[in-house]
Amino acid sequence: MTTAIMALSNVRDLYQQVILEHYKKPRHKGKTNPVHRQQRGHNPSCGDTIELTLKLNDAGDTIEDVKFEGEGCAIAMASADLMADVLRGKQVTEALSMVQRFQNMMKGEDEFPKELRKLNVMQGVSQFPVRIKCANLTWHTLKAALESTHDLANTGFVSNEDT
Amino acid sequence: MTLTREKTLADRIRSDFPILHQKVNGKPLVYLDNAATSQKPLLVLNTLRDYYEQYNSNVHRGVHTLSAKATDAYEAARDKVAAFINAASRQEIVFTRNASEAINLVAYSWGSSLQTGDEIILSVMEHHSNLIPWQLLAQRTGAVLKFVELTAEQEFDLEHFKSLISDKTKLVATVHVSNTLGCISPVKEIAAIAHEHGAKVLIDACQSVPHMPIDVQQIDCDWLVASGHKMCAPTGIGFLYGKLDILRSMSPFLGGGEMIADVFLDHATYADLPHKFEAGTPAIAEAIALGAAVDYLSAIGMDNIYAYEAELTAYLWEQLGQISEIQTYGPQPKVAGLGRAALAAFTAGDVHPHDLSTILDQAGVAIRAGHHCTQPLHRHLGIQSTARASLSFYNTRQEIDVFIAALKEAIEFFGSIFS
Ligand SMILES: Cc1ncc(COP(=O)(O)O)c(C=O)c1O
């Protein structure tokens, strides 16, 4: 069988080169040092898990570093790595509004402005409704990490599937 | 050169399944998610329609003509299921919503008599349906769960089982055909060993009843459960088989109408089997349609289905074996594809199962990705998730070819980025 079996153009829209690069060669895997916030998240129905660690500034209002560990598909892992990329130096309040914007982007209702446009490569996911939760997992987990009042380890999982 | 090919089983019956003849994402549908749920033949669809168009009525409650007709059809479906698995009596068949409900019924009704320190033996490959009800029971009663591990071939380890069983064992509950590994457990031997120790045996036959002949008297299990939706019937209907004397000794699970004999304000007596376990208006149309599904499968013949699916198994594994990135789980098929179920759980190198499933979907190929409700098994195998292609008697070699070609393309697509 020599002819292309699938509509590869659709697949390419979803799995853009950048996404696959972040999946294969993540730059932000690991744990921050020190750890000021720690949060695990998962998608129970598919088993994807993620653990975010955050380093904040002394005032606790700005993100200095984000790292992730976890297991999941290309979309989930690339989304985490991209997120970590753009969060450095962002204020906590800013990061929280980015969570909202990302979730809206997954509904096809919004996109990021120029200075954050690298996140827009995830837009293709909105065309694959069953995969949106993969892309959202890391952002959902970030929100829980930032909103948790106590410092340090939050040992439970937040589920990205309870709505 | 033209090859005249003998018509296969699938060639003969595919037209019975309207849903198979459609395009998905512009490609002909190749449905390889049969272990999750099967498709339904026209006979079953028409049975549902006839019921609602011609004799929809409540059962066991009216003396009018329609009610009598609905009751007859509902009870005839019970006879069909009883005959299909060779139950000794029609009273041994209890209709439930699905296999999960049937297991919960046993766990509550029979299980409540267990005491602290009593042991229940399961296997590490159980579907969550045959695990969580026993975890809950263990929490309620103080019973202890023990788990049979796998052989090197990733099958039920009978020797390990023998080392676990003792006179403390009150129940052995295990899967007949694993929905992930596809191995076929030696349920007859398991039952014999369990009975030597005075333990009861429950068989989760969700993945065996739709694919091979089942004889409960030959297996000599105490209970056996299955879901209709995996055997060409609608969702919302399944059944519990239980030996008559054991079902008799069990108290009711759910209370309500239908399951009573005589009701007073402060107490009641219960209906005879099987109605004692069927509280409330049942899934009448679905039960009758399950009867039709049994008729349909029986007309093809479960031996024929098993033999044809074995051919597909041999071909599927041969094809998968030629892709170096693919790692399969569960036992290799034996000669002629026998000895395991017509499904393959696998991983594909760098391509995560979810990504694979999305990419195959673009080729019209439906497979499942994830833990298939066997999370502890995946943990046991040291993997987070697998992709699974599961076949049925209406699948063809040509469909396996499409699946394999799409699989290769997906691996290539991901691979090309990184090389
Ligand atoms: C082996 C096995 N057991 C139990 C079940 C549960 O079936 P249901 O969800 O229909 O109760 C399934 C199907 O998902 C299964 O494959």
Automatic annotation (TrEMBL), chain B:
<feature type="domain" description="Aminotransferase class V">
    <location>
        <begin position="30"/>
        <end position="403"/>
    </location>
</feature>
<comment type="similarity">
    <text>Belongs to the class-V pyridoxal-phosphate-dependent aminotransferase family. Csd subfamily.</text>
</comment>
<keyword id="KW-0663">Pyridoxal phosphate</keyword>
<dbReference type="InterPro" id="IPR015421">
    <property type="entry name" value="PyrdxlP-dep_Trfase_major"/>
</dbReference>
<dbReference type="InterPro" id="IPR015424">
    <property type="entry name" value="PyrdxlP-dep_Trfase"/>
</dbReference>
<dbReference type="InterPro" id="IPR015422">
    <property type="entry name" value="PyrdxlP-dep_Trfase_small"/>
</dbReference>
<dbReference type="InterPro" id="IPR000192">
    <property type="entry name" value="Aminotrans_V_dom"/>
</dbReference>
<keyword id="KW-0808">Transferase</keyword>
<protein>
    <recommendedName>
        <fullName>cysteine desulfurase</fullName>
        <ecNumber>2.8.1.7</ecNumber>
    </recommendedName>
</protein>
<dbReference type="Pfam" id="PF00266">
    <property type="entry name" value="Aminotran_5"/>
</dbReference>
<dbReference type="InterPro" id="IPR010970">
    <property type="entry name" value="Cys_dSase_SufS"/>
</dbReference>
